[in-house]
Design goal:
Layout lengths: L14 H16 L8 H21 L23 H22 L3 E5 L14 E8 L2 E8 L22 H12 L8 H9 L4 E3 L5 E8 L2 E8 L4 E4 L4 H5 L3 E3 L2
Antiparallel strand pairs: 1-2, 2-3, 4-8, 5-6, 6-7
Helix pairs in contact: 1-2
């Protein structure tokens, strides 16, 4: 969902409102003077007051204050980007990332207009969900249907079964995924191992691996997916050839 869907719940606090709130806090802190007679306690109270007073300039520096038309929360700005711009950036980065995962066969990725229980996303045809099962866990996002074609990933009648992750958990899983080691064999070294009859795979491939099958004079290189129990002819992509995250499959 987008920020404008929450316009009746969330809005930016103006500088004047913030100052008013801080002044109330200062009055509350000053009340402690009547109970704390010790000089050290008085200094602590004065320090807290100074921090509260300084917070106004800290949170509202001399760049333009957020401005927006009433009710249009998407146009709220931090002085540099609006929420609409940031949501668009997130969607485009997400599409590029998911498309790369799907293209390289690294992890399971899908898009669907229905959740795993068969229900439409938010009960409408206007939304869809994209999901990926990373080595560090499942991640997902919802987007409006107008962005459907930007996600060049496998389409499913229903999405993968949702594991209950929260947005923060999904972010943690993405960060852990980015920190996974990416160093292994080059494609050239991996081919040498393949010629010796060994199975090879890229680090992120999960249950998929490559093997060589020789029948009479024909040499076939197959990708085997032990999870789906299927095998198919395989040709390396440019990214496969340039990568150095190849390893021998167990």
């Amino acid at each position: 969902m987008e920020l404008k869907d929450f316009k009746d719940v969330v809005r930016a606090m103006t500088k004047e409102e913030f100052e008013s709130t801080i002044n109330e806090d200062i009055k509350f802190v000053e009340g402690f003077k009547y109970f704390l007679r010790h000089d050290d306690a008085t200094r602590i109270v004065e320090h807290i007051k100074s921090v509260l007073e300084a917070s106004v300039d800290y949170y509202y520096p001399n760049h333009p204050e957020p401005k927006a038309e009433p009710g249009d929360m998407g146009e709220v700005s931090d002085g540099y980007h609006t929420f609409n711009e940031l949501y668009r950036y997130r969607m485009l980065y997400n599409a590029a990332f998911f498309n790369l995962l799907a293209r390289n066969g690294q992890v399971e990725v899908c898009k669907s207009r229905r959740h795993s229980d068969g229900e439409k996303c938010f009960g409408s045809d206007d939304w869809f969900i994209v999901m990926a099962i990373l080595p560090t866990g499942q991640v997902s996002n919802h987007y409006k249907s107008k962005y459907w074609d930007l996600f060049d990933v496998p389409e499913r009648e229903t999405a993968f079964e949702y594991d209950g992750h929260t947005p923060n958990e999904a972010a943690d899983r993405l960060e852990k995924y980015l920190k996974l080691p990416r160093h292994g064999m080059t494609f050239e070294k991996a081919l040498e191992q393949l010629k010796l009859g060994r199975k090879i795979k890229r680090i992120d491939w999960g249950k998929k691996y490559i093997c060589m099958f020789i029948a009479e004079s024909d040499v076939n290189i197959l990708m085997v997916d032990t999870g789906q129990k299927v095998a198919s002819n395989w040709n390396p992509t440019e990214h496969d050839i340039m990568s150095n995250d190849w390893e021998i499959a167990g």
